[in-house]
């Protein structure tokens, strides 16, 4: 497959190539809007690491993986944790999309489907505290969205443990 040629301009990553449209159709990477496919930071870095995308700046200069990482970490101090979780789930075959409109970090779809997400996901570093109030708030967000809550905990070796919370009725 030919690499997707994408641009990073004003914090947005997008492409209008045939390869981008094909990858969106077959593997649900990006969000199509008009003639362009827009990528989340995690999607873009994942595709760069998989050697399926090349990202250019506004001067048509290719950005190295290191430069992309630094830019994304400057924009989002939690990017590394989010990316570790994104990468793990994508490698396991899940479809992972942003979930800002749900008040979450990611929404996760079962393998091979993109009809309705099953989970609202919050990545957390093992060394950070998650208060009961934070946990309750995350649970409420998932419940209001009619999704199960998925907490992804990353450790210092970049391993991820998942904890699913489901609502039950007595």
Q: What characteristics describe this protein?
A:
alpha+beta; MutS, DNA mismatch repair protein, domain I; Trna Endonuclease, Chain: A, domain 1; 2 domains; 5-stranded mixed sheet; 10 strands
Folded structure, characterized:
The chain has helices spanning 18-27, 41-49, 65-75, 79-91, 132-144; strands spanning 4-9, 12-15, 31-33, 36-39, 53-56, 95-98, 106-109, 119-125, 148-154, 160-165. The chain is of the alpha+beta class and 170 residues long. It folds into two domains: 4-75, tRNA intron endonuclease, N-terminal domain (MutS, DNA mismatch repair protein, domain I, 3-Layer(aba) Sandwich); 79-165, 3-Layer(aba) Sandwich (Trna Endonuclease, Chain: A, domain 1). It has a five-stranded mixed β-sheet, covered by helices on one side. Helix 2 (41-49) runs antiparallel to helix 3 (65-75). The model has no long low-confidence stretch (mean pLDDT 91).
* Helicity range: 25-40%
Please report the first level of CATH classification, the CATH class of the largest domain: Alpha Beta
Helix- and strand-based class?
alpha+beta
- CATH level-two architecture of the largest domain: 3-Layer(aba) Sandwich
Number of strands: 10
Strand neighbour order, sheet with most strands? 3-4-2-1-5
* H/E element sequence: EEHEEHEHHEEEHEE
Quote the average pLDDT. 91
Strand content: 25-35%
Q: What's the main sheet like? A: 5 strands, mixed
Principal-axis shape: globular
Q: How many domains make up the coordinates? A: 2
Number of helices: 5
And the CATH topology of the largest domain? Answer: Trna Endonuclease, Chain: A, domain 1
């Amino acid at each position: 497959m030919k690499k997707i040629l994408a641009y990073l301009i004003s914090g947005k990553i997008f492409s209008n190539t045939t390869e981008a449209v094909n990858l969106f159709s077959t593997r649900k990477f990006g969000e199509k809007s008009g003639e362009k496919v827009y990528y989340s930071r995690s999607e873009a870095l994942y595709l760069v690491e998989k050697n399926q995308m090349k990202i250019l700046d506004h001067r048509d200069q290719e950005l190295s993986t290191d430069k992309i990482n630094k830019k994304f970490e400057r924009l989002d101090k939690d990017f590394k944790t989010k990316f570790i979780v994104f990468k793990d789930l994508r490698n396991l075959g899940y479809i992972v999309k942003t979930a800002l409109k749900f008040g979450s970090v990611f929404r996760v779809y079962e393998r091979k489907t993109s009809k309705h997400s099953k989970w609202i996901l919050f990545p957390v570093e093992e060394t950070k505290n998650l208060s009961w109030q934070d946990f309750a708030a995350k649970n409420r967000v998932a419940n209001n969205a009619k999704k199960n809550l998925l907490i992804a905990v990353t450790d210092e070796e970049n391993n991820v443990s998942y904890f699913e919370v489901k609502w039950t009725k007595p």
